[in-house]
Amino acid sequence: MIRLEDVCKVFAGAQGSVEAVKHVHLTIETGEIFGIIGFSGAGKSTLLRCINLLERPTSGRVLLDDTDITQLSEADVRAVRRRIGMIFQQFNLFASRTVFGNVAFPLAGRGLSREKLKARVGELLELVGLSGREDSYPSQLSGGQKQRVAIARALASEPEILLCDEATSALDPQTTHAILQLLRELNRKLGLTIVLITHEMQVIKEICDHVAVMEDGAVVEQGEVFSVFAAPRRPVTRSFLEMTSHMAGFRRLLEEKSPVLQLRPGQCILSLRYLERNACSALVSYLSRTYGVDLNIIFGNIEMIGDHPLGGLIVIAEGGEKAIADCIAYLQNIHVGVEVLLDARTAH
Amino acid sequence: MQELLTELFPYTMKSLPMLWRSTVETLQMTFWSGGISFVLGLALGILLIVTRRGGLMENRLVYEVLDKAVNLFRSIPFIILLFCLLPLTRLISGTAIGVQGSIVPLVFGTVPFFARQMESALSEVNSGLVEAAQSMGCGRLDIIFRVYLRESVPSIARGVTITLISLIGLTAMAGAVGAGGLGNFAYVYGQQRSRMDIIYATVIILVLIVTVIQVLGALVARISKH
């Protein structure tokens, strides 16, 4: 278990000091995949580096299974770091070494025989799906393959924790997906605790169990991924959600006064957001039948997070004023987040 | 062939043993001062890299002192440095003339230049690699040897090539004030006696030496770069 208690990091700069991380409290359970999401400059990279002390917190405690590692000697910190693997956005492979040399790098000085070393590196490469590429140089590999080598290297010393610093941000969508699947697999197979930081909602949705949203150095929301994104409390959380939903597109249409959104009298635009894990797919037809309201779907976005659908619809509702009001009341009753985005009902 | 050479380089052909000895002396001076400068300059380059701001062992005082010392020695023209160092040279080498007497000033003339070359070679190493090594629990010495030095072999080879070539230039200058070697040979036997063919012959030999160094340096840089 990793616990951050009141961690702060202040950088002294020429133009005064910068508070990169502000009073962060986090608990990361053993064996889970924990995501930290935030826009660039939110301090997530600095926070991640506080976990293996590549950045020393200015104040606060970093507990690894109840040991405050900020109190350890330099030699002990190095020993702790061998229990924590790390991978990076730019892979950071040693260009002068082969794949074998890179993966064997952390194993040097452990008194392993040449055969044992070979066997171990072979095992690790098989684990990441790169068997037989021992003699290639990093420059001969694709981005995804480089990240696989980096993962094998990070796992060489059999760590319990893997820190991922924007590990998929330099990769294309398919490769991102493949690497995330690999991380998921390693998490399950090895019981590896994974802490990742990202600015991509996709990454959080695909593999994380818990998420913390960072803004301006502070963690503003945290919890189970589904709960956090089903009911975002902060604008920053909502904006991450909108990045992958079509809300941003809707907002743009609204700003551009698109003809699609020119309502006839009596119509209104509703946004429906699924908040609980009971989203029923027959919602639209049920409403039409029961209340006699026509619902015209103009945007829709439903994603599976874990086993639950998350997302929503934007619809133009047309019908009697009372019918629409009843509709809204019903939706609120079944815990569907409903919001009137544009209203032409009273504009007679 | 023999006849042609005798016709083109009449005086040179008459003093072939002397030419040979001078070439050997030049190579000796280059080898010894180059070897010592390599060790000292590399150490200095590493110190500059690790003590600079944000370095592995950030130390403002050490960095500033070394940085200024390097600048100081680099700004002294070599011929003046030769004279300045005479007492020190006698103290260390026991003599200020010949190959033995040339090593101290050549090292002083080369180390600052080479240290800067090494500093720039090592600073090309991506800080991400250092961070990656730290995250694997590597200590400072590990990082210096297994990351900094290992990753910058191609740049180091280029730096060594450039430095060796400029060092050969310095040996000629040292030769003119009594260190022997091709510089001395060209000056005493060629220039002072108006025997131009001797000067041309030394130029040809120097060009050959420089070419060999350059080819070897490029080869090392190419093999070590992946």
What are its keywords?
heterodimer; A: 348 residues; alpha/beta; Rossmann fold; Alpha-Beta Plaits; 2 domains; 6-stranded mixed beta sheet; 4-stranded antiparallel beta sheet; 12 helices; B: 226 residues; mainly alpha; 85% helix; 0% strand; elongated
List the helices and strands and how they pair.
The complex is a heterodimer of chains A (348) and B (226).
Chain A lengths: L1 E12 L2 E13 L4 E5 L6 H8 L7 E6 L2 E2 L5 H8 L2 E5 L10 H6 L9 H14 L15 H13 L5 E5 L7 H18 L2 E6 L2 H7 L2 E6 L2 E7 H6 L4 H10 L2 H9 L11 E8 L8 H9 L2 E12 L2 E11 L2 H13 L2 E8 L5
Parallel strand pairs in A: 3-8, 3-9, 6-7, 7-8
Antiparallel strand pairs in A: 1-2, 1-4, 4-5, 9-10, 11-13, 11-14, 12-13
Helix pairs in contact in A: 4-5, 5-6
Chain B lengths: L1 H7 L1 H5 L1 H36 L8 H16 L2 H7 L1 H8 L4 H26 L3 H9 L4 H12 L1 H27 L1 H11 L4 H29 L2
Structural account:
The complex is a heterodimer of chains A (348) and B (226). Chain A is an alpha/beta fold and 348 residues long. Chain A has two domains: 2-243, P-loop containing nucleotide triphosphate hydrolases (Rossmann fold, 3-Layer(aba) Sandwich); 254-343, ACT domain (Alpha-Beta Plaits, 2-Layer Sandwich). Chain A contains twelve helices and 14 strands. Chain A has a six-stranded mixed β-sheet, with helices on both faces. Chain A has a four-stranded antiparallel β-sheet with strand order 2-1-4-5. A four-stranded antiparallel β-sheet of chain A has the order 12-13-11-14. In chain A, strand 4 (59-64) and strand 5 form a beta hairpin. In chain A, helix 4 crosses helix 5. Chain A is elongated, with a radius of gyration of 25 Å. The mean pLDDT of chain A is 89. By secondary structure, chain B is mainly α. Chain B has one domain (2-224): MetI-like (MetI-like fold, Orthogonal Bundle). Chain B is built from twelve helices and no strands. Chain B has helices at 2-8, 10-14, 16-51, 60-75, 78-84, 86-93, 98-123, 127-135, 140-151, 153-179, 181-191, 196-224. In chain B, helix 4 crosses helix 7 (98-123) and helix 11 (181-191) packs antiparallel against helix 12. The longest helix of chain B is centred in the first third of the chain and has 36 residues, at 16-51. The A-B interface holds A 52, 54, 78-82, 84-86, 88, 90, 92, 94-97, 105-106, 108, 137-139, 153-154, 157, 163 and B 126, 128-129, 131-139, 146-147, 150-151, 153, 224, 226.
